[in-house]
Inverse folding.
């Protein structure tokens, strides 16, 4: 899954840059905003719409990047096989932007970073894929596991502090929309 590997490497490189600029600390809101985090006042006031893309590659701490990249490492190849390389990249970025846009609309004063908006997009796209091919028992089983995973993540996210749930919900919806608009591999 070359696109998955590339996305992991790009995110790791950006995290390394965060470590350099943050002198080993990556959770500072000021640092993250300076590097391109989603921050509503800059998007609205200065028209910095690129801040809907850059947060996908920024992470606030070791645990944050580790869990997101581990999820991408396992889910990415499934989505890349289902959608093909180009559509997979489109799904990842489209859902990430939709997630960050929803977060901007409903939580503009929240500093947001992380690949989770794009990861939820992968889950959304794969749920649509599983519903289209539910006659295949293996795909149906994967879809059931993903639905359970998404449900647990949404419930735990609502219970936790510091989780951008608007971004997660937007990413999930973005992935479903992308899959509906562009289809899967070879279609």
């Amino acid at each position: 899954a070359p696109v998955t590997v590339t996305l992991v490497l790009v995110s790791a490189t950006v995290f390394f840059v965060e470590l350099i600029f943050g002198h080993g600390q990556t959770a500072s809101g000021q640092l993250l905003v300076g590097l391109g985090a989603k921050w509503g006042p800059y998007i609205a006031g200065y028209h910095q719409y690129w801040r809907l893309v850059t947060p996908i590659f920024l992470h606030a701490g070791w645990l944050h990047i580790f869990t997101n990249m581990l999820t991408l490492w396992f889910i990415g190849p499934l989505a890349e096989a289902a959608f093909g390389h180009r559509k997979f990249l489109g799904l990842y970025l489209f859902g990430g932007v939709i997630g960050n846009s929803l977060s901007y609309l409903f939580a503009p004063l929240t500093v947001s970073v992380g690949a989770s908006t794009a990861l939820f997009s992968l889950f959304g796209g794969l749920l649509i894929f599983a519903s289209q091919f539910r006659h295949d028992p293996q795909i149906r089983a994967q879809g059931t596991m993903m639905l359970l995973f998404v449900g647990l993540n949404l419930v735990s996210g609502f219970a936790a502090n510091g989780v951008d749930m608007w971004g997660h919900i937007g990413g999930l919806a973005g992935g479903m929309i992308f899959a509906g608009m562009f289809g899967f591999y070879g279609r």
User: Anything to note?
Assistant: The two ends are 19 Å apart (CA to CA). The mean pLDDT is 95. The first helix runs from residue 2 to 21. Residues 35 and 178 are 28 Å apart (CA to CA).
